[in-house]
Amino acid sequence: MLVKDNKNIDFGYKIVKKKDKQNLVNSVFNSVADKYDLMNDITSLGIHREWKNNLINWMAPQKNQKLADIAGGTGDIARKFLNNGGHSAYIIDINEEMIKSGKVNKKSLKNIKWLVASAEDIPIDDNTFERATMGFGLRNITNRAKALKEVHRILKPGGRFICLEFSHVENDLIEEIYNFWSFKCMPYIGEKVTGDRSAYTYLVESIRQFPTQPELSEMLSEAGFSRVKYRNLSNGIVSLHSGWKL
């Protein structure tokens, strides 16, 4: 891990001022927003859809549940939630270009609302949602602890949060193949599809700087969540982390 202090933070393999990270992250997603879903399909070989299906299956949406999909981007998790029995969803993302892409490029559903806002300061009342999700967004947030506390705050008592995030691979051979694909192939594909190699270099590096599965579980507990547990998918390439507000 890179050396950080209370004024600095990782941005991929670089150390930057905390006050600058959000603008740098915004630049990354502004650059790739219109091709973001396509790149997810290409770089994961389509497996990201199954990872998100696993999230929804574990959550088991009910018709009385409202979802806050934080760092929800183009809204694919929120749509899966609604298509699998959920009542309504807010898609909350700090990047307006990602939300614009979600609105334009996907068939809208009447029970979705969109909100441009930071995960660190969500303009939603306490105890509003039965469920909350965050898919591949936590590692891009500057103050992750604050964001997790915000998620806990907006959940109703008895509410549940599931976070889907890239994690740390368990198998040495798979890790070797995964590292080759990540560092050699993904930035090249990113350059050809989006015109921005550096954006996908950052995204690959940010995964390696992210907390381990036990470390993230501890962060959820510190934010107030109970019954915290995680499930590894694809040998730990990604993990699902679940916590309850009790």
Number of separate helices: 9
Q: Which spans of ≥5 residues are poorly predicted at pLDDT below 50?
A: none
Q: If you compute it from the alpha carbons, what radius of gyration comes out, rounded to the nearest whole angstrom?
A: 17 Å
Domains, number: 1
Instruction: List SSEs in N-to-C order.
Output: EEHHHEHEHEEHEHHHEE
State the strand order across the main sheet.
5-4-3-6-7-9-8
Give the N-terminus to C-terminus distance in angstroms. 33 Å
Q: What global shape is seen?
A: globular
Nearest-integer average pLDDT: 91
The strand count comes to 9
Report the CATH architecture: 3-Layer(aba) Sandwich
Summarize the biggest pleated sheet: 7 strands, mixed
Q: Approximately how much helix is present in the residues?
A: 40-55%
Structural class: alpha/beta
Can you tell me the CATH topology? Rossmann fold
Describe how the helices and strands are arranged:
Elements: E1 8-11, E2 14-17, H1 18-32, H2 36-43, H3 47-59, E3 66-70, H4 76-83, E4 88-93, H5 96-105, E5 112-116, E6 129-135, H6 144-154, E7 155-166, H7 172-194, H8 197-208, H9 213-222, E8 226-233, E9 238-244
